[in-house]
């Protein structure tokens, strides 16, 4: 596996060679037409980018030459110098030297001597005549042609390729299962080989779609500055984990969600300088956008040190909105209360503005994360601050799922929404208020028969009765919006990666199902939607 440093070096080389190729085109155009502003602007931009990239990678001499060339092109742009006379051979020599240095980096060879070139660039900046005796470029070969290793591909082409890989994986599983059923050694061998090839192809395509989250994170300093200025607040932004990689489509989908969270953190979370100083805090608020990995997931956090979420206020608002009774609200944990913030239209803001209070837009954020098979968590301490955590899959094409049986039919639940699976005897379950409860990891979790929950009747769930349970009960502990729910199923089958296809009409109108997948046996398997199941349970609970 390549090291991160090696990956960065390859990216630098690919871009640098493209820059060098473009420099050759534009400098030739500028020589023919010294007033060609587009070519001049592009040369200035290329030198600026190469300077920054070279310095970031530690190639300081290359960065110095690019900086000198950038300065010269800047003087030509501002009409302080003309692209004539002795300036022309120095500029051409500089571009040739840049090409030689880039190749030296790629081949891990010795760099050319650049003292004469640097001195001449400095003379030109000072308005002095350059020294043109001798070679401006020290190289064995200024005319070698190089092609970049970087190929730009439209994302829709990768989407199509990934869809084809998904179809291949479905057929691979079917062939593999068929080989096992028939027991033909030759077919089993071919199926095993196909299994390995399909796996490698799948991960190669997924890898090609990965981008650094920094491509999104690096856009936020300006956003934070503008929002903080509008709110008359002072905010210091910290960004980390920019090199964490994630599927480009996932990053695109969460862009608006991250913007919501950042704007809300500044608009409502972080106090004004005066309020902060009164409460003993520094006048400047702290905001952090962080990325990290946890197993196969990518975690993106938006953390502020503001006023935090007032759980009691949210509890009262939820009762006012009719989302929960006063008696039930009093028994809810802080995490359960904060979950109301993600209800559609729920807001703690006293007035609606472009940058409103916590809650405005959070239901939209939750829906976006749900669509990816991810989770949105919130932690907060009054007076200390709030942290929103987006738990995201690395890829959305192939998802991990738990297969189980119910009344002889196979179903699937995404692993992203599963905390754990347990098998309990009936006597380990308790009936409280007409509902089954199981103690899981020190918490009492409501448990319901998935068979009963999927019943088409709109009537509330009938009161729980342990006498109906016989033998060990296989229970999936699902988690959505900080709410855990135990689902009793007939039998666990296995865990595997699946490719989810959308439901066809009219089944696509049934909210409980998030799609279908095809198993290796050829059987169609319904993928249950945990958010929808949770909503149905809350509506039907006794």
From TrEMBL:
Gene Ontology biological-process entries: chemotaxis
Listed Pfam families: CheW (PF01584), H-kinase_dim (PF02895), HATPase_c (PF02518), Hpt (PF01627)
Function: Involved in the transmission of sensory signals from the chemoreceptors to the flagellar motors. CheA is autophosphorylated; it can transfer its phosphate group to either CheB or CheY.
This enzyme's EC code(s): 2.7.13.3
Entries under PROSITE patterns matching the protein: CHEW, HIS_KIN, HPT
Name assigned to this protein: Chemotaxis protein CheA
Modified residues (Phosphohistidine): 48
Stretches assigned to the Histidine kinase domain: 191-396
GO cellular component terms given for this protein: cytoplasm
Highest rank taxon of the organism: Bacteria
CDD domains to which the protein is assigned, alphabetical: HPT
Organism: Hymenobacter lutimineralis
Sample GO molecular function, one term: phosphorelay sensor kinase activity
Domain CheW-like: 398-539
Keywords attached to this entry: ATP-binding, Chemotaxis, Kinase, Nucleotide-binding, Phosphoprotein, Transferase, Two-component regulatory system
Broad EC category: transferase
Reaction catalysis annotation: ATP + protein L-histidine = ADP + protein N-phospho-L-histidine
Domain HPt, residue spans: 1-105
Signal peptide limits: none
């Amino acid at each position: 596996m390549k090291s991160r440093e090696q990956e960065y070096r390859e990216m630098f080389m690919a871009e640098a060679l493209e820059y060098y190729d473009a420099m050759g085109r534009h400098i030739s155009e500028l020589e023919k037409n010294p007033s060609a502003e587009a070519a001049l602007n592009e040369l200035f931009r290329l030198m600026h980018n190469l300077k920054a990239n070279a310095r970031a990678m530690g190639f300081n001499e290359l960065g110095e030459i690019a900086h000198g060339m950038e300065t010269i092109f800047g003087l030509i742009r501002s009409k302080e110098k003309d692209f004539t006379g002795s300036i022309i051979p120095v500029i051409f020599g500089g571009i040739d030297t840049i090409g030689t240095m880039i190749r030296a980096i790629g081949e891990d060879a010795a760099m050319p001597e650049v003292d004469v070139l640097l001195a001449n660039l400095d003379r030109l900046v000072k308005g002095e005549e350059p020294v043109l005796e001798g070679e401006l470029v020290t190289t064995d070969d200024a005319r070698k042609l190089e092609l970049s290793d970087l190929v730009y591909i439209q994302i829709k082409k990768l989407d199509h390729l990934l869809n084809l890989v998904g179809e291949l994986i479905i057929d691979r599983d079917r062939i593999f299962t068929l080989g096992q059923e028939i027991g033909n050694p030759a077919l089993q061998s071919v199926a095993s080989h196909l299994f390995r090839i399909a796996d490698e192809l799948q991960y190669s395509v997924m890898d090609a779609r990965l981008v650094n989250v920094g491509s999104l994170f690096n856009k936020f300093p300006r956003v934070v500055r503008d929002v903080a200025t509008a709110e008359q607040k002072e905010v210091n932004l910290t960004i980390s984990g920019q090199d964490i990689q994630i599927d480009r489509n996932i990053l695109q989908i969460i862009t608006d969600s991250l913007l919501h969270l950042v704007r809300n953190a500044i608009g409502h979370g972080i106090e004004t300088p005066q309020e902060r100083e009164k409460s003993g805090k520094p006048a400047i608020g702290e905001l952090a956008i962080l990325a990290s990995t946890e197993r196969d997931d990518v975690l993106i956090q938006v953390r502020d040190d503001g006023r935090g979420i007032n759980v009691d206020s949210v509890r009262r608002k939820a009762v006012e909105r009719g989302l929960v009774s006063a008696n039930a609200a009093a028994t809810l944990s802080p995490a359960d209360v904060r979950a109301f913030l993600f209800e559609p239209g729920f807001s703690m803001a006293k007035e609606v503005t472009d940058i409103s209070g916590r809650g405005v837009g959070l239901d939209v954020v939750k829906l976006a994360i749900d669509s990816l098979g991810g989770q949105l968590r919130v932690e907060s301490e009054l007076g200390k601050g709030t942290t929103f955590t987006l738990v995201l899959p690395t890829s959305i094409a192939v998802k991990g799922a738990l297969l189980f049986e119910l009344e002889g039919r196979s179903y699937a639940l995404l692993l992203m929404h599963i905390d754990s699976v347990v098998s309990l005897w009936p006597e380990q379950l308790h009936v409280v208020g007409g509902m089954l409860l199981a103690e899981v990891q020190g918490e009492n979790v409501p448990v319901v028969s998935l068979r009963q929950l999927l019943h088409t009747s709109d009537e509330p769930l009938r009161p729980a009765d342990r006498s109906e349970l016989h033998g060990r009960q296989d229970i999936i502990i699902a988690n959505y919006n900080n709410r855990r729910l135990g689902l009793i199923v007939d039998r666990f089958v296995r865990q595997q990666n699946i490719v989810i296809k959308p439901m066809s009409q009219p089944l696509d109108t049934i909210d409980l199902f998030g799609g279908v997948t095809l198993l290796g046996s050829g059987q169609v398997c319904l993928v249950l939607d945990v958010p929808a199941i949770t909503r149905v349970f809350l509506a039907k609970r006794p």
